[in-house]
Amino acid sequence: MTIIDGKKVSEEIQGEIAAEVQKLKAAGKKIPHLAAILVGNDGASETYVGGKVKACERVGFRSTLVRLPDTVSESELLKKISDLNKDKDIDGFIVQLPLPKHISEQKVIETIAPEKDVDGFHPANVGRMALNLPTYLPATPYGILQLIERYKIETAGKTCVVIGRSHIVGSPMSILMARNTYPGNCTVTLTHSKTKNLKEICFSADILIVALGKAEFLTADYVKQGAAVIDVGITRVKSDKTKTGWKLLGDVKYDEVAPKCSFISHVPGGVGPMTITSLLLNSLKASKKEVY
Prior knowledge:
Elements: E1 2-4, H1 6-26, E2 33-39, H2 43-59, E3 62-68, H3 74-86, E4 92-95, H4 105-111, H5 123-130, H6 139-150, E5 159-163, H7 170-178, E6 187-191, H8 198-203, E7 207-210, E8 227-231, E9 235-238, E10 246-249, H9 254-257, E11 261-265, H10 272-287
Helix pairs in contact: 1-10, 2-10, 6-10
């Protein structure tokens, strides 16, 4: 059984990105510039955006953080997005989700110029992904592909079951794992809350990607011997064994599932660290005009 170490892989890739940035500097070329819009002061969003700013510093990117109050109107936010679309110095940007209830997330996503949409959420980029055209892949699915590739997990002809159909993880993963490339060429089943016989379907899987958001949902009786299991879920639960009083659990009951696996990712430290790294990879593509 091999533990998939997302922290280690993300550090390796960020090192490769930093080396590429040094080459750009030495050649007198433009340094990648990533911007983020943060609306309000949600604690989790602050943490995520702070992590992105620090990651930019580590690899040598320029970064800009645009802070707006949670009282900002939808039209004001859309105007700021339009300004960033026109700013030739900024290669790509994200609008940190979730947004206040009075703002339409879909309208915000569709206002971001596809060529600067390094989160990969714009319908144009989702369409390009579905057609297997060059695009910015959503960060978490892109990170999972990197882990599969770096650990040389065989995918061709394998049965892959994805649990969860969100537009952020589950749905894109089902498309990506079926592509005629590596990682890909799987026979994919996308499952969700209305799926019948879920246990039997999961037990047929060579590769299980679990993105449900329910702590320790996947137990050993869902997993066949030798399967590769990638746990995308992360839930904060109370714990009297930690200093903070909380601990993070994945969607997989790790201790009982791990002995059956050929590969398994852990929470925390598995898929999570790869998300910001994937955003950096997309931003590097944007700066080099590799997609548009």
